[in-house]
Design goal:
binds fe (ii) ion; 15 helices; single chain
């Protein structure tokens, strides 16, 4: 069964033609520092930047799967990866202009240095799962849809929470990309799941038991909770997450599924047990990332001051 039929082929052609880096023409970058951002806003922006910048490594998980025998999926992923790169770049630029100093390449290398063995194991299990179970495709297409929808919902919530006009302008442009990404994953998942009871069962089982919110794994449970609580722990936020779950619940076999709302309620429970949980990260400005000392990734990726002119010229 091919999950990319005629309609999706048409869409992918249009997407390939239209895909480009997010257009930042006219964004009032000079104004970034003139409007305040709260600690919560800054915490979320660092989280979001790191996860956008993590997309190439996430892609490495997708490319080892059987689904990537399909050229339409790989065409999408090629464009998608490029677009996501510019989301991370622009969020980083905004943070730098706000006065938070970091070198983007160092930060990305540091985040990767902390991934450890878990990342490699995860690639292997994804690869094995996809080749052993044909319907595994339904699972990560659904997860793709959930991740994109969570991301754009999170950006919407951050616009609302921050009230920062330049951030609003930037995130509104990024949201348009995320909507297209969501449409691709959602349509592809729907096509795979339609009239395919086995795929529906597997998808439901995996989402109920294995699914975690976007970013978890790169970020800790407490960091995920801090983001969820800052953005969604009010009436409107909760409603948005219930809406999100309802949208995903329209996929065949996923009716009534609880994902992001469940994550919010679990975060609330952890705060009830320990009132400082999650909020202490925001309060202590815990967004600096230092590399794991035992990891060689930091050395492998650090190019500063270590290259001769000759090396630089030939690379
Ligand atoms: Fe993005
Ligand atoms: Fe996206």
């Amino acid at each position: 069964m091919n999950y990319v039929g005629v309609d999706m082929s048409f869409s992918i052609e249009r997407y390939k033609e239209e895909s480009r880096k997010v257009d930042t023409t006219g964004i009032e970058w000079d104004e970034v520092a003139s409007h305040p951002l709260s600690k919560g806003d800054l915490f979320c922006l660092h989280y979001m930047m790191d996860i956008e910048n993590h997309v190439p490594l996430y892609l490495s998980h997708l490319l080892v799967t059987r689904a990537c025998m399909d050229p339409i999926l790989t065409a999408f992923l090629a464009c998608w990866n490029y677009e996501e790169l510019w989301h991370g770049e622009n969020i980083g630029k905004l943070l730098n202009l706000y006065g938070i100093e970091f070198d983007t390449q160092d930060r990305i290398a540091n985040v990767r240095a902390n991934l450890g063995l878990q990342n490699s194991l995860s690639i292997l299990t994804t690869m094995a799962g996809s080749w052993l179970m044909k319907n595994f495709s339904a699972v990560y297409l659904s997860i793709g849809a959930i991740n994109e929808l969570s991301t754009l919902t999170g950006y919407g919530a951050l616009i609302r929470k921050s009230g920062h006009p330049v951030l609003k302008d930037l995130l509104s442009r990024i949201i348009k990309d995320e909507r297209r990404h969501f449409a691709f994953y959602y349509n592809s998942a729907k096509e795979w799941l339609s009239d395919n009871e086995r795929a529906q069962k597997l998808d439901r089982w995996m989402l109920d038991r294995v699914w975690v919110p976007v970013g978890q794994g790169v970020k800790t449970q407490e960091e995920v909770d801090a983001l969820a609580l800052y953005l969604f722990d009010d009436e409107q936020g909760e409603e948005e997450l219930l809406d999100l779950d309802a949208k995903i619940g329209r996929l065949p076999g996923l009716s009534g599924i609880k994902l992001m709302s469940k994550a919010l309620y679990a975060a609330r429970e952890r705060v009830e047990r320990n009132p400082r949980w999650a909020w202490r990260l925001i309060e202590n400005e815990a967004w600096a990332v230092t590399p794991d000392r035992s990891s060689p990734v930091g050395q492998l990726t650090s190019r500063h001051g270590e290259r001769t002119e000759e090396e630089a010229a030939t690379s």
